[in-house]
Write a structure and sequence with these properties.
With 195 residues, the protein is mainly α. It folds into 2 domains: 50 residues, no CATH class; 140 residues, Tetratricopeptide repeat domain (Serine Threonine Protein Phosphatase 5, Tetratricopeptide repeat), CATH 1.25.40.10. It is 78% helix and 0% strand. The longest helix has 23 residues. The protein starts with a helix and ends with a helix. The mean pLDDT is 90.
C-alpha cells in the first residue's frame, strides 16, 4: 500500500495547504488535527509492525483475520517445513490448504514430500502425489517423488520406473529423476539377475 498511498498523501497535503491559504484562521486547528492523525497512524504502525516480525507471525495473523485462505496455509506450511522439528505442523497447514482448495497441486505435492521426509505412511504420500498430478499432469517433481515413494513400496518397482521416465519426458535435464531412474534400473537388473 505504500506506493498507492503516496499519491493520495501528496494530494491531501497539497489540497490542505491550498485550503489553508484561503482560510488562514483554521491553521491551528488543522495543525492539531494533522498532529493527531500522525500520532494515530504511528500507533497503528507500531501495532502492525508486530505482525511483520517474520513470515510465521505474518502468516498466522493473516489466518486470524481471514477465512478459507488456502494460499496462506500453504505458505505457512512451506515456512514451517524449513524449520527442524516443525514438519508435523507444516503438514497440518498443507492439509488445511488441500481441504480448502482440493485442486491446489503444490499443497498436495508438498504434503507428499513432508510425508516422505517424516517417514509418514507411504500410501498417503502416494495419494498426495497422485492428487497433485491429477491437477497438473506435467508436474515433473511430483512424478519424481511419486516414483521415490513407489520405489520404497514392495512390488511397485515398475511403477516407480514409469514415474521417473515421466518426469524425464517433461524435464529431460532433471538430475534427481536421472539418479532415481538409475537406482531403480539397477534394482530391476539385480532382481532379474537373482531369479
Amino acid at each position: 500500500m505504500y506506493l498507492p498511498m503516496t499519491g493520495l498523501a501528496i494530494m491531501l497535503a497539497w489540497g490542505m495547504a491550498s485550503a489553508l491559504r484561503r482560510l488562514p484562521r483554521f491553521k491551528t486547528a488543522a495543525a492539531v488535527l494533522a498532529s493527531a492523525v500522525v500520532v494515530w497512524w504511528a500507533g497503528l504502525t507500531a501495532n502492525q509492525i508486530q505482525y511483520w516480525k517474520n513470515s510465521e507471525t505474518l502468516y498466522r495473523h493473516t489466518l486470524d483475520v481471514t477465512a478459507g485462505n488456502y494460499w496462506v496455509h500453504y505458505l505457512l506450511g512451506v515456512y514451517l517445513a524449513g524449520i527442524p522439528g516443525r514438519l508435523p505442523e507444516a503438514m497440518d497447514h498443507f492439509r488445511a490448504a488441500t481441504r480448502i482448495q482440493p485442486a491446489y497441486a503444490d499443497a498436495h505435492y508438498n504434503l507428499g514430500v513432508a510425508l516422505l521426509l517424516s517417514a509418514g505412511p507411504l500410501p498417503e504420500a502416494i495419494a498426495e502425489f497422485n492428487a497433485a498430478l491429477r491437477t497438473d499432469p506435467d508436474y515433473a517433481e511430483a512424478h519424481n517423488n511419486l516414483g521415490a515413494a513407489l520405489l520404497r513400496t514392495p512390488g511397485r518397482l515398475a511403477d516407480a520406473i514409469a514415474q521417473f521416465e515421466a518426469a524425464l519426458r517433461i524435464r529431460p535435464d532433471y538430475a534427481d529423476a536421472h539418479a532415481n531412474l538409475a537406482l531403480a534400473l539397477e534394482r530391476q537388473a539385480a532382481s532379474a539377475a537373482g531369479r
